[in-house]
Amino acid sequence: MDSLTDTPEPVPPAPAIPAAPVKVTRDPEGTRARIMAAATEEFARYGLGGARVDRIAEQAGTNKRMLYYHVGNKEELYLAVLEDAYAHIRETERTLNLDKLAPPEAIARLIGFTWQYFIDHPEFMALLNIENLHRAELLKTSGQVQSMHSPFVQMIADVLARGVKQGVFRAGVDAVQLYISIAGLSYFYLSNVHTLSVIFGRDLLADPAREERLDHMVELVLKSLRP
Question: Where do the record's region annotations for Disordered lie (predicted)?
Fold first, then answer.
């Protein structure tokens, strides 16, 4: 500088250090699985009207754009959740190997499985409640639900037919009616367990009460099937 009033020459800024490239992990199956898990929890808790896509996306660790890309809009996502819920219980039922058991044992196993599945998956019961409130309007549009239930109904029908042939079951029992009765015995008890506990002065969720209920259901259904 020639004098105190001279302006110093500007120092050029240091060259910017390039940021490390962001590693993008492409995992469409994992992303969809996270979306479905978050959506199942959201719809089971808030219903179709109260559920929020923003919350689902945040819980799944993604954004709405990716959610719409993988699944679709809110109604399509809700239907996908319903279809997945039905698919899961039907797939799990196929592992029961009812065809390997004597007919009474097969029916007892089916009752026990249905009872425990409802206990372990309260979100499934919640989704059933919600869709029935909507008169199954979205479920009617599914192209999968009826087809996934046909093998299950046939599985029960085969057990009944074997029971009739062996002389341990009476003829004329409809497989669909039987399953509705089995599911209803579990569903009503569990969906109303809190009010029933108050009314009858019992803790109907306590282990002894649950065991007693299962034994009662098995006895009731098997007696109804006897010749």
Answer: 1-21
Taking only the tens place, the pLDDT of each residue in 59-100 is 999 999 999 998 999 999 999 999 999 999 999 999 999 999
* pLDDT class of 20 with cuts at 50, 70, 90: very low
Secondary structure of 11-43 in HEC code, one letter for each residue: CCCCCCCCCCCCCCCCCHHHHHHHHHHHHHHHH
Written as one letter, the residue type at 96 is: L
Angle at 152 between CA 219 and CA 176, to 5 degrees: 60
Sequence-ordered list of residues with C-beta below 8 angstroms from that of 196, at least 6 positions apart, any chain: 189, 202, 204
> What's the pTM value of the predicted model, to 2 decimals?
0.84
* Spatial distance between the Cα atoms of 138 and 26, rounded to a whole number of angstroms: 31
Q: In what helix (H) or strand (E) does residue 79 lie, and over which residues does it extend?
A: helix 74-93
Nearest to 169 by CA among 87, 99, 106, 80: 106
CA distances from 210 to 60, 68, 129, 202 (A): 35, 42, 22, 11
Q: What is the mean pLDDT of the chain?
A: 90
